[in-house]
Design a protein that fits this description.
By secondary structure, this protein is of the alpha/beta class. The chain has a domain at about 510-630: ANL, C-terminal domain (GMP Synthetase, Chain A, domain 3, 2-Layer Sandwich). Helix content is about 30%, strand content about 25%. The protein is built from 19 helices and 30 strands. It has an eight-stranded mixed beta sheet with strand order 12-11-8-6-7-14-15-23, sandwiched between helices. The protein has a seven-stranded mixed beta sheet with strand order 5-4-17-16-18-19-20, sandwiched between helices. A four-stranded antiparallel beta sheet has the order 21-22-24-25. β26 (about 505-510) and β27 form a beta hairpin. α5 crosses α6 (about 130-140), α7 packs across α8 and α13 packs across α14 (about 375-385). The longest helix has 17 residues, at about 95-115. Bound molecules: 5'-O-(acetylsulfamoyl)adenosine. 5'-O-(acetylsulfamoyl)adenosine (7RM) binds near residues 294, 296, 371, 498 and 512.
């Protein structure tokens, strides 16, 4: 494994001091651990006002050469991926680094054969099969920009993302397995593509063997395309700052934005953070349960572990199929030693009962990780006691799609940990807490808005097609800082505790949705006039979605209307964003200028009816009483 590796608390502290005193020297040392086709001439140029951030300027590389080729001599036969299918009766598949290299090259050649060129965007809409990782790396191999869309998103969401990026090709599958269900995938793509003129080719992986419509001239079976090409594909040299991928993420306003990451900095930071946070050794088996459709699956499946030459498990299924012991069974089956999952999964498996854990030994586990949302103390202790058997450190990793990699976390077994605290910034990361007025808070035992005062290599570079939106969203609230949108506390010793979003973003089971995005989907339902969505505390999901809906006519069949609203959200975004609670109201609490008073709606959803605050500025204060009485 790599040398840019912190192994003791003293080294952590020294690295942190070094990174602040001499950031360029610090990162140059770490970046020298990779294969560059051409060395960089300047480590960093930055201006947060633009924003204009560039790392390793003038350098050239191909990230897949670092993920694959450089391991062949020493680790060619080492397993890169252990694929565990949805159905425990289906055989798992092991893919060595050499095989992965060959498959990526072959896929890259298939893309080329289908006219995909450097700089083109390729949408990937695939379930958790090895072809998903292969496709991602194949794009990177030839310099095509991948845009992975999570398979739970609807045709409309997929179409929006394809159109925004003007993707020229789509890689997908006939269908997918998910627990005891078989679901269509290609059909969703077909529906999306009715709205997308940029897509010229669709490559279809066969997974469930369903009959699908193949559009002549546009659609081809992947296995047939792969037969027509060879397994040799030179890696395209990329400039450090060339875009590597786009990943769409929700914010507080408008449609999801395409967060853009670039080749050099992302490569350096994902490997660096992977090896330092999880502290893998050569024989460890890493398992990240995220879907590759989210940033966690990009940074800590497709890239971080492959860059580090680690063996990882990729799991197609869900935690509760065939029963809620599935995760623990897979850990025993494959000897997983580093396990990285989300608090929502921990809470749901905790709720399923300890009887599902007891049959498994879990003795292979060495390190546990958490990501996506704050982990409550109860879940933290359960994870530590019943899964880690009290002997595995837990790394609570705080980061975002926009940060590209973990920024705040304990380093496993090196820095200390505290329940519900992401704790310590990684060396090279400079978090600050600001007051609402934008003043840095120097003291400890405080709460504020979490910002970064200095760039790190995997900071987002832009939002696809709209640089000003990037500036406005992240760099304009507080001049000279990257604003995360999260509130945080700092304890007496300096550990960070993330509280949650301070904007109109809801985090449901670790997935981000903008309230505006859900509202516009709800408003598509026939008979809906307007709606307002807020989050509320949910035992399993962290936050649930509470929708207040105004209808044209009084609702005489509420069940039917709720069903139609849920269908509208499923069609506009996907089932993952469906409201948990829907309350029909005659009006929304608005100020005289027409602004919805979300504070009031949040309080009602949280059932804090006694503390609604001042309602006298409302256009129609009576509506508040109605909303309180009608709470669901
Ligand atoms: C990696 C990821 C980002 C948002 C972020 C936070 C929340 C993520 C933690 C967390 C508390 C954590 N990217 N968040 N990790 N909150 N503790 N360890 O989830 O772009 O999808 O979401 O998730 O609010 O801003 S993301």
């Amino acid at each position: 494994m790599s040398e840019a590796r912190i192994r003791t608390l003293a080294e952590y502290e020294a690295a942190r001091a070094h990174s602040i005193a001499d950031p360029e020297g610090f990162w140059a040392e770490i970046a020298s651990d990779f294969q560059w086709r051409k060395p960089w001439t300047k480590v960093l140029a930055w201006d947060f006002d633009g924003p204009d951030v560039k790392w390793f300027l003038g350098g050239q590389l191909n990230i897949t050469e670092n993920c694959l080729d450089r391991h062949l001599a020493e680790r060619g036969d080492k397993t890169a991926i252990i694929w565990e299918p949805n159905d425990p009766k289906e055989a798992s598949v092991r893919i060595s680094f050499r095989e992965l290299h060959e498959r990526v090259c072959r896929m890259a050649n298939a893309l080329k054969r289908n006219s995909v060129q450097k700089g083109d965007r390729v949408a990937i809409y695939l379930p958790m099969v090895p072809e998903l990782l292969v496709s991602v790396l194949a794009c990177a191999r030839i310099g095509a920009v991948h845009s992975v869309v999570f398979c739970g998103f609807s045709a409309q969401s997929l179409a929006d993302r394809i159109n925004d990026a003007q993707a020229v090709a789509v890689i997908t599958s006939d269908g997918m397995f998910r627990g005891n269900k078989e679901m269509p995938v290609k059909r969703v793509v077909d529906e999306a593509l009715e709205q997308c003129s940029s897509v010229k080719r669709v490559l279809v992986h066969e997974r469930v063997r369903w009959a699908v419509d193949m559009k002549p001239g546009r659609d081809a079976w992947l296995h047939e395309e792969l037969k027509l090409v060879d397994g040799d594909c030179p890696a395209e040299p990329m400039d450090s700052e060339d875009p590597l991928f786009i990943l769409y993420t929700s914010g507080s306003t408008g449609k999801p934005k395409g967060v853009v990451h670039s080749c050099g900095g992302y490569m350096v930071y994902t490997q660096y953070s992977f090896i330092n946070v999880f502290q893998p050794e050569e024989n460890d088996i890493f398992w990240c349960t995220a879907d590759v459709g989210w940033i966690t699956g990009h940074s800590y499946m497709a890239y971080g572990p492959t860059l580090a030459g680690a063996t990882q498990v990729m799991f197609e299924g869900i935690p509760t199929y065939p029963d809620p012991g599935r995760f623990w069974q897979v850990i025993d089956k494959h000897g997983v030693s580093i396990f990285y999952t989300a608090p929502t999964a921990i809470r749901s498996l905790m709720a399923a009962g300890i009887d599902h854990v007891l049959p498994y030994s879990l003795h292979s586990l060495r390190v546990l990780g958490s990501v996506g949302e704050p982990i409550n103390e109860e879940a933290w202790h359960w994870y530590r006691t019943h899964i880690g058997k009290g002997r595995c450190p837990i790394v609570d990793t705080w980061w975002q799609t926009e940060t590209g990699g973990i920024l705040i976390s304990s380093l496993a077994g090196i820095t200390d940990e505290k329940p519900s605290h992401a704790a310590w910034p990684l060396p090279g990361v400079q978090p600050v807490l600001l007051t609402a007025e934008g003043k840095e808070i120097a003291e400890n035992e405080v709460e504020g808005l979490l910002c970064m005062k200095f760039p790190w290599p995997s900071i987002l570079r832009t939002t696809w097609g709209d640089h000003d939106r990037c500036r406005q969203t992240y760099f304009s609230s507080y001049k000279g800082y990257y604003f995360t949108g999260d509130g945080a506390k700092r304890d007496a010793e300096g550990r960070y505790r993330i509280i949650g979003r301070v904007d109109d973003v809801i985090n449901v089971s670790g997935h981000r949705f903008g309230t505006a995005e859900i509202e516009s989907a709800i408003n598509m339902a026939k008979g809906v006039v307007e709606s307002a969505v807020v989050g509320f505390p949910h035992d399993i999901k962290g936050q649930g979605i509470y929708a207040y809906v105004v209808t044209e006519k009084p609702v005489d069949d509420p069940e039917d209307m709720r069903g139609r609203i849920i269908e509208a959200v499923a069609a506009g975004i996907g089932r993952i964003a469906k409201p948990d609670k829907i309350q029909f109201v005659s009006g929304l609490p608005k100020t005289r200028s027409g602004k919805i008073m979300r504070r009031i709606l949040r309080k009602v959803a949280e059932n804090e009816l006694g503390s609604l605050g001042d309602t006298s500025t409302l256009l129609d204060p009576a509506v508040v009483e109605e909303i309180k009485d009608g709470r669901v």
